[in-house]
Protein 1
Amino acid sequence: MRRILIVGAGQSGLQLALSLQAEGYDVTVMSARTPDEIRRGWVMSTQAMFGNALRTERIYGLDLWQAATPQIQGLQVSLSAPPGERALRIESPIDEPAQSVDQRVKMAAWLELFEERGGTVHYQGVTTSDLDGLTSLGRYDLTVVAAGKGELVSVFDRDPARSPYTTPQRGLAVAYVHGMTPDPLWPVPHVSFNAVPGLGELFVMPCHTLNGNCEILFWEAVPGGPLDLWQERRDPNEHLALTLDLAKQYVPWIYERCANVELTDARATLSGRYTPTVRRPVAQLPSGGIALGMADVVIANDPITGQGSNTAAKCAAAYVEAILAHGDRPFDRAWMEQTFEWFWESTGRHVTGWTNAMLQPLPEHVQGILGAAAGNETVARRFANGFSDPTDFENWFMSPDKAQAYLASVAS
Amino acid sequence: MAKRHWKVRPYVLTGGRTRTRQQLLVHTLVSVPYYDSVFAAGLLPEQRTLYEHARETRSLAELSAFSGISLGVTRVVVDDLASTDRLLVHAETYESPFDRRLLERLLDGLRKLA
Amino acid sequence: MASASLPDNPTLTSAKIVIAGGFGVGKTTCVAAISEIPPVNTEAWMTAASEPIDRLDPGIDKTTTTVAMDFGRLTISNDLVLYLFGTPGQARFWPMWDDLCRGAVGALVLADSRRLDASFAAINYFEQDSDLPFVVCLNLFDGMLTHHLDDVRQALALSPDVPLITCDARSPSSVAQALMAVVTHTMQRTGHTAPGAFPAR
């Protein structure tokens, strides 16, 4: 039985662990926190997952929350221009429902499930010296690092050719709230994307959290701009007040739905910022061991396209497939590089290219697409479905000539 | 498309052994119940070092520090050795660190030094 | 003072108190004052940024830092031993703090009245990120209290339910009293909760 060590217990690490466990592998997970600590901890993400990503979980029976979680039916895009006035509104259904399950709920339950099924979990934040020792111990056939938010990522070298940014592109501020009223214009569960050109974006989405269903209010602020008030970690209630204050000023149609909101719990906020970075997939440790990076360890995109957990799930599925296909052969450096390149080619580069483009002022052809989408259901739906399958964007969205050709084809 | 995978039953995954899954905290005590030099000679380097150092009752953190082996590796190796009964992970006598009997005993002990 | 070896007793069990605080506030002195073994220093090296990093940021630079934590030991009886774990100086190594605090009885957060800011991060950790009961303790380096405790409490923005005490970290009896304050505070904080309602952390 092949022995796999997975460092990190988030979407990608635990999905990989549970999938490989089901396939008969002897899997060990190192988690910095216990299930109980995760449940009592701070919110970690917004984690809206779309059809293609959810499918990778469901194959292994891991979507345990479908019945309890609001089924997101579509995407709504609004432009606030000039700031505070709604210049454009696009609503589009998506082909398959999306859903967001608070990772405090999900990761805690997945860890327990993994242990119940006989998996070994060691509760420890892994340092570089631990990783060095663990990879050279000879106990594991393969070590995968899936701890994207810790210090361990820095053992993976940044890939400058795939990382156009050297500084954070948005300040991030998340708040989970109860008490938001439904959108009067489109009262079905949906992800609402509200862009304030040049300044940032506010996302609103339904989510299943520790104490029932809620909404997530998520500001993305262009650094140094008037929305960027998230340099310091604030008291949660102050964080919420500021979130609402900015909504009132810049996206009043959202603020109108927030008269009675309150935080879902005492640790329902998150703020921070990071530099979108693609890293090289193999870490070489001083004592000779090697480790394979996965998900946001090696591909950390800005959350503006909401792809973090989707990419994590797809990465887990891709790695499972590559591990199974490799049989009993050694998981050497060449296999690791090949595995990542395959994932990069099939998923990573599409998500990264699209996400990095969305961080910039929208080019003319994208403005043209959004303008067309406002009056054309087909265009709107193709854009919305791209969140499930971002590989489609290169066929029509990413370049002016393809956009023009596509818009001409739907117009005729 | 959506097929459910469950190829191996849980007990097979643990090699049939019943895990007590004693949490290995940094202050958890471990000791070697009966030292076996033949067993020791057959161990891999890290296992052997930790086995030798655990002849004296020690916490996981002490074991790691005295052996010069990282805490992460110490946890993994101790867990393996404990599953073979070659190493004893001392049971937690108290239900929780907030058990009143434990706290009272600590107070009594500290009072002697105060 | 007990011998350096622990009793050879299969029912020997252990408890733990965390000694936290900023760099140079006397954590090692405090552990050394009461430990029956010389404080054991264990090092873990990490690749880490030299500047404080955001807890979301994966884009940190590659430099290697050694994080040291030290711990001491106190035999309470033939079947019970108390460990004292000093946290690494910088709060940003929070996964290690979680590991040290998991299953602890409580924490003693040391502060130096001449530079209270050195312990802000530690206090923030216990107030915001951990549910472990903790006591803040002003280490009187010269044995004298130069500030009113009320002023210190205000400067640290301590909530009223966090005890603020003083000690001389060089003195075994003073450290023992400080640790008693931690145990007593934990008793008060957890006294009315059912077993399991306040899970190990």
Protein 2
Amino acid sequence: MSVFSSATAPMGAAGSRAPAPLVAVDGLRKRFGATVALDGVSFAVGPGEIFGLLGPNGAGKSTTLAIMAGLVRPDAGDVHVGGHSISRERQQAQRLLGVVPQGLAIYEEYTAWQNLNYFAALRGIDKPRRRRQIGEILAITGLTEVAHRKVAGFSGGMKRRLNIGIGLLGDPKVLLLDEPTVGIDPQSRRHILDSVRRLAQGGMAVVYTTHYMEEVEYLCSRVAIIDRGRIIAHGPIDEVRALAGDAVVLRLPSPQGFMDDPGRLAALRRALPLPVEATAGELRVVLPEGSRQAPEVIGTLQRHGVALDGMRLESPNLETVFLALTGKALRDGTETGKGDVE
Amino acid sequence: MSAARQVGAIAVHHLHRVLRGGAPVWLVVIPLALIYVLGVTMHGFFAAEYAPPEPYRVLVAPAQGAQDAGERAAAVAQRAVTIVEHVSHAREYFSASLAAAEQARRAVLDRTADVAVIVSDEEPQLTIVAPPESIAAASLAHHLRRFLAASGSEQSGLEQSGLEQSGSEQGFPPSGAAGREIQAAAGTAAPAGTAAPAESMAAGAGTNTPWSGAGAFEYFSIAITVMFMTFAAHSAMTYSAQDRKTGAYLRIRSMGVSRGTYLAGGVVSAAAIGTAFALTMAVVTGALFRVDWGDPVAWFLMTVTGAASIAALSFCIMAVLPANPKTVESAGGTIYTLLAFLGGSTVPLNIMPDWFARLFAWLPNRRMLDAFLAIAQGASVQAVSGDLAALAGIAAALLAAGWAVLAVARKEGV
């Protein structure tokens, strides 16, 4: 399987020339009852490219992938995989796709080998080819040694790797990965990210959804930031990052006694004409004009009794962009107050 | 990959999961233990096995007309003698002797005999005369069925007919069901009592129902097998619900497996596990409890059709409920336990009120029970064809209903 090259050269980054797309998403719209899940999502991914779809929970990433995989019918728009329409030529398009769902779509009472064998049979891979391909996938996922152990005894990372491995059955030209690193240890995450890179180097087009911006920055050449079913930023990573302009984020570790008091937080939001995000772990304030706004913000924080221990300013990154554009955190989708600016 | 092969792969996969999930224990050991316990403890409730303090008094008589016709009369008389000899073998149950037909009827009416058997060379060849609800008649009917089967009259059976005379005139209680006659229709195509359980129940006395001639072990081997067939089939369907919960279903669909193919795989696996379980139980109960399940062809057709109807019911349950395996599993357990009670699997029908047996005769598990009992007592494929058709119809209707529910709810996406 050529895609399992052992080379580890980094992917081309921002601005790399876009090859002819293997997968083209065009104007997807989807509504579930009164909820608009997707509202005109379009992008294209070429061979060897890792395309990041970044957004908070509920933004529409999984719906986009489900439509791309032929599992959900769009209300409007279409997806072409290798030139085949997912709406009209679903089976031909699906033959070119490998899908890694967000959930662990594996059988824990089976061994890794049995899992791969079952899905390979469903995929229609004949027995001699199946055996060879299962061996290759076990190697790339680092599961050869435990191939005949029950998955129930695997660590979370090993299960995730197997979950990805099943998506590689049948030599797909396009790999759809839906948050493949949720809930695993850093070592397994690194293994997965490096594996994805190698797959892309073999010519595979990868669509990678996540709400971890570090993963997108590490892996992807281009990214689309999606929120409430709409792509709000799209392009090479550096270009998207530049959308944040001079913005920086002021981060404060969760001030004791402050986060638990909704009244004080609301008062701060009224006083600060800037996006303020409060998560369980910290308070974050986006400074759209950069660090020169910091003194004024710090003064406001002090007047509201916020302890400044551990405060730091962060350079712009994709999360900053998202925060600046939506006023929400990527990781949990928590609505934030935007003061009176908006 | 063809859809048929995908169905096969999914069905085999579900079967594997059922077997690896401890099924060999709970699907064999528990039913066998139940059959043993119920067979031993409920022994006395079965007419065929109930040993009276004193043997039942049986009079066997050639029919009135047959006595006047030379060779035919001799043949009938010989048959009457053979029956006396056969019945007398069960001396714990019967004390049999020959009598004239009118004398035998009168003796039953006068309570000087418990039951009379009128032997004729015309249809019906055997007629049992007894008071209504007579355990003696049920017990004798059971023995005669075995005798007829053993003597080569494979198409024989006992048929309950209308009354010859009104009970009040004859001294029986005027309960609406006076003196009963049970007739053996040797050579007839389909014994009514086995072919149409619901109709036989309507006849009332319960002496020619499929369960009237069954012993405790025979009854419970069949009844508990039917009950656990439902559990077995549902366990396979529960795995389909689990796939939908974990995302395995979506993954399978993304591999080019259509919704219909996937669901067909689930239904086939449910029917297959039900059939495999029934086969196992037939072999094991035959070996352990000497249960004869009857004609293998009729048994096989009934098993497959019954398992399909249960699989279809499980499919319907899965379609109606949220895609949560726990909910599907527990709802199925509750529904099938209730069906087992209503369908006579946990409490024998011969001790339930007549209305109860009549009211739930339409249930698929009850039809299976009746048909299996009839097959065990000698009924042929033709005799249970009505039950086969009914169960096939139930399966088709439930599959269509489940599919419609899924389509309307759009639970499956594309």
